[in-house]
C-alpha cells in the first residue's frame, strides 16, 4: 500500500449517491468548492457499490470503506483535518461512519473511536435516508423521519453533532418519506453555498 501523504488543508472523503457512476458524484461539486477555498486539500472518493437493488449490502460496504479511509488517515496524520460528505445513500454511509449504524435491517456498528472522531472537522449530509426529524444538526424543511431512521441519533452522534449538518426538505422520497423525486435532487442548487460555508468554517 502507498504511504499516506498528510494534507495541509482538508482531507475530504466523499460518498456518492445511489446509482451514480464511480467517483465523487454530484456531492463532488461541494467538495471541489470547499477544496478551492482551503489550499492543500485533497478529495478522496469512497469506492463502494452505491446500488439501490441490494441497498443494505451496498450501504454497509460503503460504511466499512469510508471508515477505513478515515481511521487510516487519522492514525497517519495526527494533525489531520478530515471532512466527510455524502449525498443520498452516501449521506447514509457518512452518518453511519460517525454515529454507528443503528437502523433496523442493517448490521449494527459502533460510532467512530474518539481519537478518530476528534480528527473529523465537518460532516455534510444531503438527502440522508437515515434522517431523524428531531436531530439537532438538521437543516431544511423536513419534519419527518427518513426511510431508514437512525435509532441512536442522540447517543451515537453526540460526539460529532456540532460539526455535522444534514439537509432534508419536505417531500423528499428518501429522507422525508415524501413523494417528490425532484426535491431529493435539488440540495446543491438550494443549499450549496450555505453547505460550503459551513464546512469551510468548521475546517
Automatic annotation (TrEMBL):
UniProt-recorded Gene Ontology molecular function terms: carboxylic ester hydrolase activity
Swiss-Prot/TrEMBL keywords: Disulfide bond, Hydrolase
Cross-referenced Pfam families: Cutinase
Domain of life: Eukaryota
PANTHER family in alphabetical order: CUTINASE 4 (PTHR33630:SF9), CUTINASE RV1984C-RELATED-RELATED (PTHR33630)
Protein name per its UniProtKB record: Carbohydrate esterase family 5 protein
Origin species: Rhypophila decipiens
Record lineage: Eukaryota, Fungi, Dikarya, Ascomycota, Pezizomycotina
